[in-house]
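Minimal example, chain plus zinc ion.
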Amino acid sequence: MKAFRRFAKKERAARLEEVAIPNLQKNDVLVKVSHCGICGSDLHAWLNHKGYESVLPEVTFGHELSGTIVQSTVEDGKYHVGQKVVMIALQTQHDPSDPFCQNGLPQLSPRRRVQGLHLDGGMAEYIAVEEEFLLPIPEGLSMELAALTEPLSVAEHCIENRTSIQKNDRVVVSGPGIIGMLCAISARSRGAEVVVVGTEMDEDIRLSAARKLGFETIVVGPQLTPLCKQVEEKFPGGADALVEASGAPFALSEAWRSVRPNGTVTAIALYSRTIDLDLTQFLRKQIDLRTSYASSRPDYLRAFELFKNGQVNAEDLISNYQLKDAEQGFKDSENLRVMKAVLNCQK
Ligand SMILES: [Zn+2]
C-alpha cells in the first residue's frame, strides 16, 4: 500500500512510500482510510520543530482520519467489518487505576501516545487501530467531514470544558487557522457572539473564509489600530472570553487588554518559544488564564452533534489532495494557502 512517511529525523524528510499493509495485533482492526487531514502537529513534526522530539524517525503521519473497517481481530467486538469509523488521536489505554482515566482526562495521562507520531498513522491506504480508540461515524455524515472530527473535538474541549462559553457571551478568537475557526464555530453554536482576529497575511484566505462562515473579522498589524481598541468598539467594556489560537506570543501576552475584568483567556495554540508575560496585568483584572490541550471521547461525540446540526460547512474549510500529493498539502498548509488540507487516501 501507499503511505506518506517520515524517513529521518530531519526537516521535510517525508515521502510517499510503498509499504506492507499493517499486521494486526490483538484487539486491532484494519481500517481502509478514506480521508486524513493534515494537522498543525503533523506540520510541526514534518518541519522537525522543537517540542516534537518524541516523534519517531520513521513513521506514517496522520491522526485525523475517517475510514471503513475491513478486518478485525476482536471477537464479539463493538465494531464490525463495513462499519465507518474515526480514530481517537491522542490515545491512553484505559486503566481504572490511572487517576487521569478516573477523572475523564485520559489525554493528560503520562501513558498517552499520538497515533501518527508515535506509531503509524492514517496518511496511508490502511491503518491498524486498537478497537478501544474507534468511534462509529453517525449516519449521514460524509467521510470528508468526518475527517474533521478530531480537530473539532479539540475545539469543543476548549470551548465547553476550558472556556465555559454561555449564551450571549462576547468572544474573541485570536488566530483564524482551522483550530481558531472551529473554536469560533463551537462558541457560536452555544449562542455566543464571536469575532475572529487575524493579520494582514491571513486576509486572502483565512479571514475571508471566516467571513464566508458568517463571522465578523478584525485585522491586526503593526500599522493598524490595536486589537483592544477594535474589540472595545465591538464589545464595550471588553470581551467575556478570548481564545488564543494563533500561537503568536504577543497575542497571548497582550490578551488581558481585550478582556473584561473577571473574564477568561484560554490558550489553545502551541507556542514555539517562551513568552514574556506581565501577569500583574491579568491579575489586576482577575482574568482567568487557562490552557486547553487535546480532547477525549465526549468531545468527539459533541463534535458529531455539531456536524449533524449543520454547523460545519466542508466547502469553506477543506482543500482536498490525493494521497500522492501529500507533500504539496504540507507545503500549502505551511504557507497558509489553505484552511485545512485533507488527503483522499483512496485516490
Ligand atoms: Zn489534529
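The pocket of zinc ion is lined by residues 39, 41, 63-64, 89, 150-151 (CB under 6 Å). DSSP finds twelve helices and 18 strands in the chain.
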